[in-house]
Every structure is written in C-alpha cells, then in structure tokens.
C-alpha cells in the first residue's frame, strides 16, 4: 500500500456512525455464521460486533477476548474495492484445533500441514461470507487477495505486531465466533485503512439518510 500523508487531526467516529458500522457488521456476521453452522452442524453463538478506532501500534488491544499470552495461529487476507482497502484476520487459539478438526471431519495425524489446511478452510468460509455481506449492504464489490499464514503457535502480541508503518489509525471490527457446547471460538478481525474510513463514512451516510 502507498504511504499516506501524516494527518493533522485523528479520525473520530460519532456514536451514530459506530452504531451503523456495528449493525452492518452484525448482518454480515450472521451470514458467515450460518455457513459455518451448516458446515459443522452446530449452533454458532454470536456476540455483538466490536467496532473501534485504534492507533496501529495498539492493534493488539482490538482482541479483547483472547489470552494475549496463549499460543495462537492466524491467517491474513487482503481485500480492496471502490476505494476501500483492508485486511481480514482469522485467529485461533491453538487449544481449539483438536475440537474444530473433529467437527470438520479431519482424519489422520494432526500435522503442521493439516493445521495450515484447517486454518485456510475456516478463513475462506468466514472471511469470504463476511466480506460478501458487507459489500452487499454498502453497494460495492471487493476483490480478495490470496490468504496467507500470518504466524503459528505464537502469542497474540507477536502475531499482531504492526507491519503497516504507513497506517496511523485503523478501523477495527472484531467478531467472536463460538460454537455451542464445544470449547471452540475464533476471532475474525477486519482492519480498514484511514483512507477507507473516509470512503465508508460517506457510504453509511446514505444509509443513515434512508
């Protein structure tokens, strides 16, 4: 991504804007959860999406639900469309893998290759469905990059060390997917660039006028 000019004033969100982002995320989250529930034949518990603006250096603060020291693995996938760019991350605590592997009918020895395949499968389901639901509501189209493993078996703080030195702030949407009666949960984290926030604010302004 091209470096952005240093901003004189930080971006802020009004309560109305934040509520609108939260409602849009809630609809998209439900569509992704429905796909996951039908795939695993389980009930997916859904929380209220968390919408926050963070300094990029404080990104780890976005993940309130996960133990910051517990080993975790993550997949990252970039997306872009109509002036909006960002990245989506799926983060799993390593302690979840045996249970999710059984639910997805993975057989054989639990190797690193299987670990990566499972990460990619869940990421494709949740990221793809969420972005589709978000795009439909904002009347835009996203193109998605190839997913990549961000890291494995590391503390959350190490996984989320800033790599985008040109970002100053990010709009972060966090969704926690938990499975009823199973000790499984994963975090979906959507990160939008500063320039994207301005474009999205104009999009939701039309929704708020209706």
* Average predicted local confidence, pLDDT: 82
Summarize the biggest pleated sheet. Answer: 8 strands, antiparallel
Number of domain units: 1
**What's the total helix number?**
5
Shape: globular
- Strand element count: 8
H/E element sequence: HEEEEHHEEHEEH
Strand content: 25-35%
Q: Which CATH first-tier class would you pick?
A: Alpha Beta
Rounded to the nearest angstrom, the distance between the terminal CA atoms is 34 Å
Q: Over the alpha carbons, how many angstroms does the gyration radius reach? A: 17 Å
Oligomer: single chain
Uncertain regions: pLDDT < 50 for 5+ in a row? 1-5
CATH architecture: 3-Layer(aba) Sandwich
List keywords for this structure.
single chain, 210 residues, alpha+beta, 8-stranded antiparallel beta sheet, 8 strands, globular, disordered N terminus
Summarize, please.
The chain is an alpha+beta fold and 210 residues long. The chain is 38% helix and 27% strand.
Structure description:
This protein is of the alpha+beta class and 210 residues long. It has a single domain (15-209), classed as CheC-like (Chemotaxis protein chec), CATH 3.40.1550. Helix content is 38%, strand content 27%. The protein contains five helices and eight strands, in the order H-E-E-E-E-H-H-E-E-H-E-E-H. It has helices spanning 15-40, 97-103, 112-138, 156-159, 194-209; strands at residues 44-45, 50-55, 72-81, 84-93, 143-144, 148-154, 169-179, 185-192. Helix 1 (15-40) crosses helix 3 (112-138). Mean pLDDT is 82; it is low at 1-5.
């Amino acid at each position: 991504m091209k470096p952005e000019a240093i901003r004189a004033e930080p971006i802020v969100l009004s309560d109305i804007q934040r509520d609108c982002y939260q409602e849009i995320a809630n609809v998209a989250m439900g569509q992704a959860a429905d796909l996951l529930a039908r795939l695993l034949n389980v009930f997916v518990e859904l929380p209220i999406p968390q919408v926050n603006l963070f300094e990029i250096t404080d990104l780890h603060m976005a993940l309130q639900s996960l133990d910051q020291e517990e080993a975790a693995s993550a997949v990252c996938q970039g997306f872009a469309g109509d002036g909006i760019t960002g990245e989506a991350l799926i983060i799993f605590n390593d302690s979840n893998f045996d249970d999710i592997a059984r639910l997805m009918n993975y057989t054989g020895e639990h190797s690193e290759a299987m670990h990566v395949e499972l990460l990619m499968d869940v990421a494709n389901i949740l990221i793809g469905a969420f972005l589709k639901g978000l795009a439909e509501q904002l009347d835009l189209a996203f193109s998605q990059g190839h997913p990549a493993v961000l890291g494995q078996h590391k503390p959350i703080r190490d996984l989320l060390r800033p790599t985008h030195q040109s970002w100053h702030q990010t709009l972060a949407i966090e969704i926690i997917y938990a499975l009823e009666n199973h000790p499984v949960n994963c975090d979906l984290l959507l990160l939008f660039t500063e320039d994207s926030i301005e474009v999205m604010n104009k999009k939701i302004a039309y929704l708020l006028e209706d």
